[in-house]
Design the sequence.
């Protein structure tokens, strides 16, 4: 009897299995699924029963670089990180042979398909939107496996060197275009302001003289400049209608003759 008790005690001790808080255990009895084991010490009798642990923590999987062709026939290389967790441990074991491998392969295929449906400009400028679409597609496909895809992040988009040079030239041309537009807008605004200033000075007596004197004052600071003073038209108009009398002309001629 003592030997039997010892054998039973040994079997019970060997049958004790520990399930950690971040794990769930899948118990099989005679090869059939019996139940999910929660965290703690659980009994799994040898020979008749077996079990498998499933980690339910969020996993970050680095998806290898994939060669893809965009909608506008540009070859690119992309890689991503996918975050997912198991929400149903029994399905993750019973519905798919190796859910780690299955999720990675599904992510690679979905990435290539998603990149092939957008142009290069959309891929570079709307990366978050494309990541969300990839996450949605993978999540729907992995629901039957008891897996919840939380997020997908596109890490890098690599372009051929020729395409990088083309994009650089396009960006440079866009900057030059914007510079020309900005300069033209500035000239238009300046011409409008000059027209307003000219109209205002023409209506104000003496404004042209003051502006001329102000301009001369501004340029007189540099002694290397040669200033040619243009006599304003208003000054010439002040002499209109005035001429020397004949007597004054004769006096001038006599003085010159005596000398």
Sequence:
């Amino acid at each position: 009897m003592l030997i039997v008790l010892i054998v039973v005690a040994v079997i019970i001790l060997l049958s004790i299995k520990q399930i950690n808080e971040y794990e769930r255990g899948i118990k099989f009895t005679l090869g059939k699924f019996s139940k999910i084991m929660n965290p703690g010490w659980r009994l799994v009798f040898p020979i008749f029963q077996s079990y498998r642990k499933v980690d339910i923590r969020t996993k970050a999987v680095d998806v290898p670089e994939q060669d893809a062709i965009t909608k506008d026939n540009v070859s690119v290389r992309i890689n991503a990180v996918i975050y997912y967790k198991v929400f149903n441990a029994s399905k993750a074991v019973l519905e798919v042979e190796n859910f780690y491998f299955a999720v990675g392969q599904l992510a690679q295929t979905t990435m290539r398909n998603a990149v092939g449906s957008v142009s290069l400009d959309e891929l570079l400028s709307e990366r978050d939107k494309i990541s969300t679409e990839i996450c949605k597609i993978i999540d729907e496909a992995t629901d039957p496996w008891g897996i919840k895809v939380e997020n997908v992040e596109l890490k890098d988009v690599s372009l051929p060197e020729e395409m990088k040079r083309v994009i650089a030239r396009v960006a440079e041309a866009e900057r030059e275009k914007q510079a020309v537009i900005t300069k033209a807008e500035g000239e238009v605004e300046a011409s409008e302001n000059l027209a307003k200033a000219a109209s205002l000075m023409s209506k104000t007596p003496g404004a042209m003289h003051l502006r001329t004197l102000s301009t001369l004052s501004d340029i007189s600071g540099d002694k290397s400049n040669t200033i040619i003073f243009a006599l304003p038209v208003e000054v010439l108009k002040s002499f209109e209608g005035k001429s020397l009398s004949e007597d004054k002309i004769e006096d001038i001629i006599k003085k010159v003759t005596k000398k």
